[in-house]
């Protein structure tokens, strides 16, 4: 019986976790912050897509099969990513914040588990498709641009890819930290 009494004593003496008085406000604030980041991401992706569409018509890409396919791959990758972000925003909006804390926590865990799949499966594929599309454009760029400007395009695209990868990795890390916090 002493083992049971020791266990009971430990249970009663454990620190009680207090629910913050403004817990609901903190949750809504985090959700709003995530939503804003996703909207900003969609604005940037949409602007990039529009630039690519304008470029498609500007260079009459439909006359050159390789250029057309390359631009379609790039635009398609952006459209797919925008669709994923809109779906994520819709999912976040549909979370029922008026349920019990435990049910809401489960909803958030499911949300971040889906985001994890997006980050580790779909995002690399989307980036790869985008890069393939860009690489398909390089011969046309080399042919029509001065060597200095062509080198600028190649180097700046590599720098942009590295910076973008670091930014994406940082955002993924933040979401993984939130998921870990929710699971603990």
Please characterize this protein's 3D structure:
This protein is mainly α and about 180 residues long. The protein has one domain. Helices cover about 85% and strands about 0% of the residues. Helix 3 runs antiparallel to helix 4 (about 100-145). The two termini are about 30 Å apart. Keywords: Membrane, Transmembrane, Transmembrane helix.
Question: Which keywords apply here?
Answer:
transmembrane; membrane; elongated; transmembrane helix; 5 helices
What does the secondary structure layout of this molecule look like, with pairings?
Layout: H1 2-13, H2 23-58, H3 65-93, H4 101-144, H5 147-183
Span between termini: 31 Å
Total strands: 0
The average pLDDT is 82
Range of helix content:
over 70%
**Runs with pLDDT <50, length 5+?**
none
Outline: elongated
Total helical segments: 5
List the domain count as a whole number.
Answer: 1
What Rg do the Cα atoms give? 24 Å
- Beta percentage is under 5%
Main beta-sheet strand count, sense and barrel state: none
